[in-house]
Amino acid sequence: MGEQKRKEKAKSDFIFSKRNYKFMFIGLACIALGFILMSGGGSDDPNVFNPEIFNFRRIRLAPTLVLIGFGIQIYAILLNPDDKNSNS
């Protein structure tokens, strides 16, 4: 009887809460958006230089979004799932 209760309790416990997963998906979306913004800008002809690879979007914005996404991921992992003041 005691073993069955322990198994039921083990099945219902999750490492992260719903709030943690929300932040994880937001962070993942930021990282994906950053990599999408970084893509492109190449040239079909190797003898022709394309200055589009050095624009603001690829040099500043996209890496910043990726770093913000990683920061959100770290926050989501370290967020306490047992927070009693949670609104979710």
Description:
With 88 residues, the chain is mainly alpha-helical. It has a domain at 18-78. The chain is 62% helix and 0% strand. The protein is built from three helices and no strands. It has helices at residues 2-12, 18-38, 56-78. Helix 2 packs antiparallel against helix 3 (56-78). 5% of the residues are buried.
C-alpha Rg (nearest Å): 21 Å
Helix count from the secondary structure assignment:
3
Low-confidence stretches: none
SSE ordering: HHH
**Number of E strands:** 0
Largest sheet report? none
Q: What best-fitting shape do the alpha-carbon axes yield? A: elongated
Average predicted local confidence, pLDDT:
85
Class by SSE composition: mainly alpha
Oligomer: single chain
What is the share of helical residues? 55-70%
β-strand percent reads under 5%
Terminal-residue CA separation? 33 Å
In short:
With 88 residues, the protein is mostly helical.
What are the SSEs and their pairings?
Blueprint: H1 2-12, H2 18-38, H3 56-78
Descriptors for this entry?
mainly alpha, 88 residues, 62% helix, 3 helices, elongated
